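Ex. 9. Protein: Branched-chain amino acid ABC transporter permease.
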Amino acid sequence: MVRDALGVGVAVGLSGFAFGVTAAGAGLDVPQTCALSLFVFTGASQFALVGALAAGGNPFTAAAGAFFLGTRNAFYGLRLSQLLAVRRAVRPLAAHWVIDETTAVALAQPTRRAARIGFTVTGLTLYLLWNLTTLLGALGAEAVGDMNAWGLDAAGPAVFLALLAPMLRTTSDRVVAGIAVALGLGLLPVLPAGVPVLVAALAAPAVLWWQGRMTGRRKGADR
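Predicted structure tokens for Branched-chain amino acid ABC transporter permease:
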């Protein structure tokens, strides 16, 4: 269990280097880049934010897109609060580590004690490595200079897709992703940068509404 948690933490934590490079390419300085990893600490939202900024998006629009992408962590927290049952004094610290990877490791454990250990080891390893590699990536990007000349501006989107792909386990997940991509790419030429990702977020409630409607029809037909 500890070995698996360490493996997840190390594998994903190293991706912070790509975030540091991407953030520097989007115009953020080293302190701003490191602050995002220290205080936001959710990779997909961080990449979405700097990606929108790099495309020339409004900072408020970029932040809104990152916020909506990060709301999934609140739902993880509802489940983990029951599973881990940590002390009230520790909850603010534990909440900062509620992300995809720590949730997956904790939920895979057979007992509460194992879940707590898995969550803690994954969170600690990932947080330390993510922030260290973010710093190294930002410093390295400053030393490299022009990001476009090296093609490193593609690192962020590539890592983002690598983090997202394993989550698309069900047909509904893939349908939502497909609609979101279609909306985002289709609206990219006609809307300001950062706005298409907000519109793409409507894919999830649209699919849920359609599924609910179809379920209601089937129940009506069975009567």
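Check your answer against this statement. The chain has a mean pLDDT of 79.
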